[in-house]
Lysophospholipid transporter LplT (Pseudomonas aeruginosa), 624 residues
Amino acid sequence: MTQHSQFALLGKRRFLPFFITQLLGAFNDNIFKQSLILAILYHLSVSGDRSLLVNLCALLFILPFFLFSALGGQFGEKYNKDALMRALKLAEVGIMLVGAAGFVFGSLPLMFVALFAMGTHSALFGPVKYSILPQHLHEDELVGGNALVEMGTFLAILAGTIGAGVLMSHAHYAAAVATAVVLVAACGYLASRGIPRAAAALPGLKLDWNIFAQSWSILRLGLGQRPAVSRSLVGNSWFWFLGAVYLTQIPTFAKEWLHGDESVVTLILTVFSVGIALGSMLCEKLSGRKVEIGLVPFGSIGLTVFGILLWWHAGGIPPGEAPYDWLAVLRHHETWAVLADILFIGIFGGFYIVPLYALIQARTDEDKRARVIAANNILNALFMVAAALVSILFLSVAKLSIPQLFLALSLMNVAVNVYIFKIVPEFTMRFLVWLLSHTMYRVRHVNLEAIPDEGAAVLVCNHVSYVDALLIAGSIRRPVRFVMYYRIFSLPVLNFVFRTAGAVPIAARHEDEGIYERAFQRIADYLRDGELVCIFPEGKLTADGEMNEFRAGIERIIEETPVPVIPMALQGLWGSFFSRDPNKGFFRRLWSRVSLVAGESVAPEAVERLDLQARVTSLRGEAR
């Protein structure tokens, strides 16, 4: 992907029709569901408990995710995804015609049938929606593409919720809603006709129509993936748990703690949705157009901090003679603190969820991707049901207030994510790398596109500081296996990072021949597996800012496993706290501009250590 904004994807046929299709689907889901809820509460003559019927709406929409997500995952592997999307969007038109008839004739059973069918449509559409992205986007576009999808989804939910209120306030609300939902469904189908071909990943797959057995099988498939993927599924579902609690409690929170009317509920929903959209949009910039899972711990920390602050800031607004509207509630300075907390919960939620989706897509085999995403949908549904049960337990049984529920939720977030990050320490490692490369230094990248996106290669670079490996790892889109002096590898704290990253400790042959030989064996294994290996051929940190002579180890590596070599140079690190400059200081060169410059690839048969040294010296230039 070029250095243009992720919004450039909206100008490409391989993304725009899909984006419009899924956006209109999310919008229609919410405009129909919310209109039905408002009709039950304010317009229809119903016998029985209206609150029970509203809860039945939630059940009818979420139940298909338990029943049919596994089937959706199988469909997504067996059939061409573009054709499947068109079929589902055409089915949506038929479903909305049934729903429209329900509104026109005031038939609650017809509306319930349409709502269940829309839930089924969404359960079947979800696995295709997320598994098609890696087929149409390059890996460095995945974060930006997912960010746009998440932004669009939450803004569509908001627009559908508000749009339903507008339509239901119309004197002829039934005709207005009926026309709107059918029109939106038709537009979604027309948009789907522009989606480019996306071939079936597993056309020979035999469909299993036993939805219960298959749901269990697909859940096991998803949770049986490598830990980074399986725990990302759990993290993703935990986010929907948080979102379900917050979104469910917002109306009551606005009424009882902000003393507001319906417009205050809309204000809070708007701020929350805008926060998610902003966080999603910022993900690409903060991640450097790669799948940067280091943002996940950052997002988790923000969710906890601002959840606690929301508890702290709640309750400071005095009640009025009548409920405040949104303008009146903004006159209280306490409201601004609450809204800021909600905005940042949304922003950090975006930081949390977008990289998780991108990781699941990037690290799942293509012939399993749709089914793994189906497993994610089943988990999401389970977690959202659990969210309702936990809310009932805390609010009705434990008698917590809503702000106290938010506090409990924030503390639970710590526990859940500590579990995830303990099982998959790569999250923590990438967070430390990301933090270093975005706080202590401002890293400029030059010609890093010379580094291949796949396949084995060796990177060679000058060695200036103890954090060279971290800065390089934070700059390159794919995982890098570093070869480093065993004493640096063993440094406290950093050792955790290096071990997690699969670094290779090496010693001089005269120091420890065993470590020396094991290092070359492991390097060869990595290269045979198509990995990217980085070495510092000087064999030690510079003591004066100048480069030391390259050692012969690089030649042995290439003789044993012939792969291309990419020379690189770090500029601007000498004199920083982590260098060996005797005049260094912690604040010296803090936040300074550091550059990582890559040169052109050298063929294995042309590799010679002194030539590589000359290339790295030339790339470094006068900068130290």
Observations:
- The chain has three domains: 7-207, 248-368+376-424, 435-620.
